[in-house]
Amino acid sequence: MKKLAIISTHPIQYNAPLFRLLAQSDSIHPRVFYTWEQSGKGAKYDPGFGKKIEWDIPLLDGYEFEFVKNTAEDPGTQHFKGIINPGLNKIIEAWKPDALLVYGWSYDSHLKAIRHFHGRIPVLFRGDSTLLNEEPGLRRIMRRLFLTWVYRHVDYALYVGTNNKAYYLKHGMKERQLVLAPHAVDNDRFAGQDSERRQDAAEWKRKLGIKDDELVVLYAGKLETVKDPAFIVGLAERWAALPIKIVLVGNGHLEAELKEKAKGLTNILFLDFQNQSRMPVVYRLADIFILSSRSETWGLGANEAMACGCGLMLSSRVGGAVDLVVEGVNGIVFPIGDYEKCTNFVRDLLAEPGRLDKIKAASREHVYQRFSFQGVVRSVEELCNGII
Fold first, then answer.
1. What pLDDT, on the 0 to 100 scale, is given for residue 43?
2. Which residues lie closer than 8 Å to 47 by C-beta, 6 or more apart?
3. What residue numbers bound the domain in which 8 lies?
4. Is the pLDDT of residue 47 over 80?
5. From the CB of residue 293, how many other CB atoms can be counted at a distance below 10 Å?
6. Do 227 and 154 lie in a common domain?
């Protein structure tokens, strides 16, 4: 049994199911070391949503973990010096792992751990950065030199998809160091209880005034500039004469501005932040899930929506779009600000109702075939068994 130490900042709804599956492995014994100690004390303020958030699903069940003392003056994940754990490396060494997996380098303790253990035990890395938003200039050159130095201390990177792989190759990592471990969500949690959840969603739609013959396009996330929800309100303006309802779920600093812009539009609805246990029903309100982000390293909400049977409309700046969308089969990828392509897509769906059903079925099939935690576990097992 290979002992795998995992460094992560805090319990995350996208990681907990993976850690539980790893703990059930016949060849891997994981232990997670959480470096944002303060995150273990309940609800945390999320500046994107503009409120305190505490997930309503278990994030610490089924695997070994430890919160490591964080001495940062301003603790948190918003800056490099928010994670300072003077005892982290000694604590990990005392556990005597065979390999180390680090989630993210951009914190004081994480970078120090990568450097400390490099050459002692295999260092694995997990991140989802891309090159999609790079701009030319001196800053890019300096950043590339720095990141190339960082990744010299990493033995293997578990890349999440096509754009993430290109990022690692650009920063000096070799093909033989890259192992596909695609971004995933707990597909079964979102796909399960389908009949019951669809009935719940149908009742909710009636209360919201959404008609059975209306196409529903959903955005769920933070209402912040980088997500470009204003583009979605712009779609509502252009689709006013079409049998389409747009539902925006979430909160954020743009909320009041967006609602003001949407005044008078009867085809757009705003719902407050919905917690994790409710999200499988939220996605079933919709036929199509949209992410119009101007910068998005992956877009895991799209995975969740696919498991619930939604087609996709993803901007070309969504890092996972190239992998998640089979163009025309389960959705489209549209250039930033391209109202015409989005409008043509929904018009075609309205004209061919049977096509929508095929798109939704293809979406669920695609996410199950290629994006699962089971696939990530297999990749980790094969890598660890091969290098240790």
1. 57
2. 78
3. 2-184+372-387
4. no
5. 25
6. no
Give mean pLDDT, residues 355-361. Answer: 96
One domain for residues 174 and 275: no
Task: Identify the pLDDT of residue 353.
Answer: 80
Residue 309 to residue 29: CA distance in whole angstroms: 34
Specify whether the CB–CB gap between 152 and 172 falls below 8 A: yes
Q: Which residues contact 85 (CB under 8 A, 6 or more apart)?
A: 35, 37, 68, 69, 70, 71, 109
Three-class DSSP category at 186: coil
Within this chain, do residues 168 and 295 fall inside the same structural domain, yes or no?
no
**Hey, what are 252's tokens?**
């954020």
Distances (CA, A) of 122 to 33, 38, 87, 100, 375: 17, 29, 20, 6, 21
Q: With 90 as the cut, is the pLDDT of residue 56 above it?
A: no
User: Residue 50: is its pLDDT beyond 80?
Assistant: no
- Let me know whether 366 and 378 are in one domain: no
DSSP conformation class of 181: -
- Given a cut of 80, whether residue 54 has pLDDT beyond it is no
- Residue 138 sits in the same domain as residue 196: no
Residues 295 and 191 in one domain: yes
Q: What is the dihedral of CA 293, 297, 302, 306, to 10 degrees?
A: 150
Short-list 89, 316, 41, 296, CA closest to 183? 296
Q: Which two tokens stand for residue 88?
A: 């982290």
Tokens of 158: 């578990």
> pLDDT tens-digit profile of 215-270?
999 999 999 999 999 999 999 999 999 999 999 999 999 999 999 999 999 999 99
- Whether 276 and 319 map to the same domain: the answer is yes
Query: Are 103 and 9 a contacting pair, CB within 8 Å?
Result: yes
The token duo for 198 is 């669809």
Specify the residue for token string 């246990």: 277
pLDDT-derived band at 182, boundaries 50, 70, 90: very high
Tell me the CATH number at 114.
3.40.50.2000
Residues 304-333 as b/e (b if ≥16 CB within 10 A, e otherwise) read bbbbbbbbbbbbebbbbbbbbbeeeebbbb
- Domains in the chain, number: 2
pLDDT given for residue 309 in this prediction: 97
Residue 110 near residue 127 (C-beta atoms within 8 A): no
